[in-house]
Design goal:
CATH architecture of the largest domain: Beta Barrel
Shape: globular
Order of helices and strands: HHHHHEEEEEEEEEEHE
Helix content: 10-25%
Strand content: 15-25%
Largest sheet: 6 strands, mixed
Number of helices: 6
Distance between the termini: 28 Å
Strand order of the largest sheet: 1-4-3-2-11-5
Structural class: alpha+beta
CATH topology of the largest domain: L,D-transpeptidase catalytic domain-like
Radius of gyration: 21 Å
CATH superfamily of the largest domain: L,D-transpeptidase catalytic domain-like
CATH class of the largest domain: Mainly Beta
């Protein structure tokens, strides 16, 4: 059952959270074994990426940005109906483009590279070897991750990334103390039922969680296709959440980020990558002083290294809703 007999008030929730996190910090600062709070599987280990890839069980949680921008970007081809930038300029029109991609987004890239003096070939929308060579030179010169894939970070540097805010729907804050149909308090960025934005097209069926990367929004849907709750999150800066249908396979009431610098309350994992786990969790806290990594107002913007950050109240609801085995659809 989702609904608690007496849904906790925000103050009670916050008091309990501070007690747990304060105890965790005391363990670390006092030199006690972190394993008393966080299991070996949940702790952020220190081996190199190659070792992590060879030993999936040791993968950390990707919650804080790291210097990997396009390594595990989805192989998304260009959308000919590319969204424009706020100033009307062209964009790549996709989460990432690479060797073999084609279309208007590639032509936009080629023109941007030509403007940088790195490309003198035809602006024909064909991501060929000369385009790849120009991309590699640009990424190296700009201090970006050099992989030949033009994703969010490279496109932002080239000023050919779509206006992200245009995809984000911000609903009015609910009345203080308002709850969803399961009895969980709504956060300032949450809505329910007809007040929630519609589900994305082709977002599955049945009881599930739906995460739309473009809109930075999550929906919890019951088996009768009713929207129980919808809320804004802060997802990955690197578009490394793979689209498709996934399943929750692991949960931790408390975990740490890949670099060991952040606490991740209510971590729910649904995707393994070559370098770490991706999942939903509450807004992370700095290990050294329990301060938050971001504000509520920043939800709806991409700020993480892979995971989806949620308001504490939305994370509490998700923890109750998404047991191991729950379907997660990423669009």
């Amino acid at each position: 059952m989702l609904a608690p007999a007496d849904p906790p008030s925000p103050s009670d929730t916050e008091r309990r959270r501070r007690v747990v996190l304060g105890a965790a910090t005391a363990l670390v600062l006092g030199g006690a074994a972190v394993g008393a709070l966080i299991t070996a599987e949940q702790r952020a280990p220190e081996p190199e990426v190659a070792a992590l890839a060879a030993e999936p069980g040791a993968l950390p949680d990707l919650a804080i940005p790291e210097p990997v921008q396009n390594e595990i970007e989805p192989d998304t081809t260009n959308d000919p109906d590319a969204e424009q930038r706020a100033d009307g300029g062209c964009t790549i029109g996709a989460l990432s483009i690479r060797l073999g991609s084609d279309g208007e987004g590639v032509a936009c890239l080629q023109q941007a590279l030509a403007d940088e003096g790195l490309y003198d070939g035809a602006v024909d929308g064909d991501f060929d070897d000369p385009t790849l060579s120009a991309v590699l030179r640009y990424q190296e010169d700009a201090g970006l991750f050099v992989d030949g894939v033009v994703g969010r970070e490279s496109a932002i540097e080239l000023d050919i990334w779509p206006d992200e805010e245009s995809f984000v729907v911000r609903t009015p804050p609910p009345p203080e103390g308002a709850m969803d149909t399961t009895g969980y308090l709504l956060s300032p960025v949450a809505s329910v039922g007809d007040d929630a934005p519609p589900l994305p097209e082709d977002s599955g069926s049945g009881r599930r969680v739906v995460y739309d990367r473009a809109g930075q929004r999550v929906w919890a849907v019951d088996s009768d296709e009713r929207i129980i709750r919808s809320w804004l999150v802060s997802g990955s800066k690197y578009s490394n959440e793979m689209p498709g249908t996934h399943e929750v396979y692991s949960r931790s009431e408390m975990s740490t980020a890949w670099n060991g610098q952040a606490w991740l309350p209510n971590m729910i994992r649904y995707q393994r990558t070559q370098i770490g786990h991706i999942g939903f969790h509450a807004i992370p806290l700095h290990v050294n002083d329990n301060s938050v990594y971001q504000t509520t107002d920043e939800l709806g913007t991409r700020l993480s290294g892979g995971c989806q950050r949620q308001h504490d109240l939305d994370a509490a609801f998700m923890w109750a809703f998404a047991d191991v085995g729950t379907t997660v659809v990423v669009t």
